[in-house]
Specification:
The protein is mainly α and about 90 residues long. The protein has one domain (about 1-85). About 80% of the residues lie in helices and about 0% in strands. α1 packs antiparallel against α4 and α2 packs antiparallel against α3 (about 45-60). It is globular. The protein starts with a helix and ends with a helix.
Length: about 90
C-alpha cells in the first residue's frame, strides 16, 4: 500500500518538473516523461499515457496538465472501482 503513495509523490514531482520554464527544456523532457510513464505504469494504459505525456510535454501550452497524477488517479482509484464492481456482480 505504501508503494502506491510513493508513486503518487513521484507523479507529483514529475508533473512539477514538466512546469519548469527553461527554453528548449520541453524538447528534452517530452521523451523522458514518456519513458518514465511507461516504466511507472505498465500495459496498454501505460503506453497510451506515455503517448499523451509526450504530446502534452512537447507543446508548451499544455504543460499545466498533471499527466502523471491523472494516471495515478486512474490506476489506483478509477480502475480499482471498476474492478470492485465486476467482482460484486
Amino acid at each position: 500500500m505504501k508503494n502506491k503513495y510513493k508513486k503518487l509523490g513521484l507523479s507529483i514531482i514529475l508533473d512539477a518538473v514538466g512546469l519548469i520554464p527553461i527554453p528548449f527544456f520541453d524538447a528534452v523532457w517530452a521523451p523522458l516523461s514518456a519513458y518514465f510513464m511507461t516504466k511507472m505504469y505498465k500495459g496498454k494504459e501505460g503506453k497510451l499515457a506515455a503517448i499523451i505525456s509526450f504530446i502534452e510535454e512537447a507543446f508548451a501550452v499544455s504543460d499545466v496538465l498533471p499527466t502523471f497524477t491523472i494516471m495515478w488517479i486512474y490506476t489506483y482509484i478509477i480502475k480499482k472501482e471498476k474492478q470492485e464492481e465486476i467482482i460484486e456482480i
